[in-house]
Write a structure and sequence with these properties.
Number of helices of chain A: 12
Oligomer: homodimer
Number of strands of chain A: 12
Distance between the termini of chain A: 71 Å
Strand order of the largest sheet of chain A: 2-1-3-4-5-11
Structural class of chain A: alpha/beta
Shape of chain A: elongated
Helix content of chain A: 40-55%
DNA sequence: TTGAAAGCGATACCAT
DNA sequence: ATGGTATCGCTTTCAA
């Protein structure tokens, strides 16, 4: 046998005393094969430390063996997307597929000839040309978060239910005595922001409250959020609770509020629509909605495999739950 | 030709009226080929939108076409590592190699049979079994940050010069009137923390100052940093400047200091040994050392390609510079 | 149930 | 300078 190199399927076959095709069948489970034969092949493989050569497998199967991952261009939520990425990678690892991270600012042009069996798109936005291009492109797409209405339909979607978490959060605010909640939200368009805005507006109306919504600019999040918080607290001192969209801005708002003499968790409740380590370990820990990003990533990859293998016509869907973490920033009791 | 499928090298050759091998040479530039012929082949390829099939290339060349990326298990600095990752990915993209992110908590066991042409290890620590295993393993390794003395030597290293930035920072503190600096540092072992600690100690001694160094535990960074800051400021009110290692802890220390009546950028200067968006856009923007993580990632990948292609015996080295961003948290002038 | 053999697409050696 | 062809490791059809 092949001494210097990694063992090949032929080496395994030789050692098991069968032909290459039989050995192959033993692994893929395709052809019918005697249980004992299969056993022997597997044992031989184990003894040799055999690993299938992915390049050869892919060549033969006509696959690339890679799934591309497209993240949004959002410098704010890096930690969140890193978690999603690790989820995708973990799940891919087990399945022997490699993950090709796409450069976040890649042009639709450079993605035209993307070599991948599929692409996972996180938080697709109609304003992201690369994302739209990928959705229109030839290879199957799975979205983490549904695309907004009007966008091209992907082969698979992991739907995230933000509404119930927002409702739970507002109910919690209400229970803590808050009467006038506000939402500070960046002016980006994706399912997450729209869902939160809608859920917020709906809850407010159904409780006879006029929703207070402040939009901030994504180009200078920090500064425009600070200004929004300032406006909010100065001009409307009945505001007793605030929801913000990211961890960085949550801390910014908390600081601003404190500067105005407000007490977080006292006369002002604060919560973030996405969780992070920073929020959990802040001076006053901040209540947040935990998106379980790693699990979301895993789900996307699982769905991708289902899509690629089944090739079913109708789009396939999975659901992902988020949950509320109540902390000191919204608890008057403490 | 091959209508339904992607064009192959044969299609290009046919269209250019040459043989497959000639067409191949036109791309790889290996054999000697007439300029005109080469031209024609390239044009034909362009017209057909030909892209080499990576699986076939890899199979033939005996490569995997993938480079693995090992990040440290540090939940604190996710944003930083995401940047490094994108740098690696960008550079890889251009070279047609795919990046296999390793699950951060993967066991050395599961990495034994890693399929990759090389592995990039960021911030290798002697305490990270997976990192050590990879360094000892068969495939060439490139480290982003040198491994500590005593660790197995990688094929390539991107050396980061922390010392000069730390010196610059302490000189700056000094110029702003600070006389008694402290360093709060987590108890992890890697080149970055050791370099900063050493540079700090050295600078202090060479300026006739007793270095004040507080170690914090990585298992509960936030809380142990807060305690450290508290101890520092309560028991030693001559401390007039603090360096911390991460962005999250910088904000924590700043909060704690304010709670004790200190003014950041006034009677207490604060700086972080690594930069982040959060620091730049904090209420009081925090002075920090910018590691240019994306560029570091790019460098690692470039070095990896050099290593894989040259197979030179002696370890090869690249240098990466970091720079100081002075902000309000350390500027008395403002 | 198993084996022989064709072929996936690209590379590189050996002729010409 | 260019073309023919064996080869990389694996999957899968077809025969036995």
């Amino acid at each position: 046998m092949n001494t210097s190199q990694a063992p090949t399927l032929q080496d395994v076959a030789d050692r098991a005393g069968v032909s290459r095709s039989t050995a192959s069948f033993a692994f893929t489970g395709r052809g019918r094969i005697a249980a004992g034969t299969r056993e022997r092949v597997l044992r031989a493989a184990g003894e040799l430390g055999y690993r299938a050569n992915p390049a050869a497998q892919n060549l033969r199967r006509g696959w690339t063996g890679a799934v591309a991952l497209k993240l949004p261009v959002n410098t704010e939520a890096m930690a969140y997307y890193m978690e999603v990425t690790f989820g995708v990678v973990e799940e891919a690892h087990g399945a022997g597929v490699s993950v090709t991270l796409l450069p976040p600012d890649s042009s639709p042009e450079s993605l035209r000839h993307l070599q991948a069996d599929g692409v996972i798109i996180i938080d697709p936005s109609p304003d992201d040309d690369a994302a739209v291009g990928l959705l229109n492109g030839g290879i199957p797409a799975v979205c983490g978060e549904a695309p907004l209405p009007g966008m091209p339909e992907p082969a698979g979607v992991v739907v995230v239910d933000h509404r119930s978490a927002v409702v739970e959060l507002l109910d919690h605010f209400s229970k803590e005595g808050a009467r006038r909640p506000a939402l500070i939200c960046p002016d980006i368009r994706n399912n997450w922001t729209e869902s939160v805005r809608n859920a917020f507006a709906l809850w407010c109306r159904s409780h006879g409250i006029e929703p207070v919504l402040l939009m901030t600019s994504m180009s200078d999040v920090a500064e425009s959020t600070r200004r929004a918080a300032q406006n909010l607290l100065v001009h409307d001192d009945e505001i007793d609770s605030v929801i913000v969209m990211s961890d960085g801005t949550a801390l910014g708002v908390a600081n601003e509020a404190r500067a105005q003499g407000r007490v977080i968790g006292g006369d002002l409740l604060v919560a973030a629509a996405v969780d992070s380590l920073l929020l959990a370990s802040a001076g006053t820990p901040v209540t947040a909605i935990d998106h379980a990003p790693r699990e979301l990533g895993r789900r996307c990859m699982r769905l991708m495999r289902a899509v690629v293998e089944n090739r079913s016509e109708s789009p396939v869907t999975d659901r992902h739950a988020v949950s509320l973490h109540v902390r000191a920033s919204s608890s008057r009791s403490s």
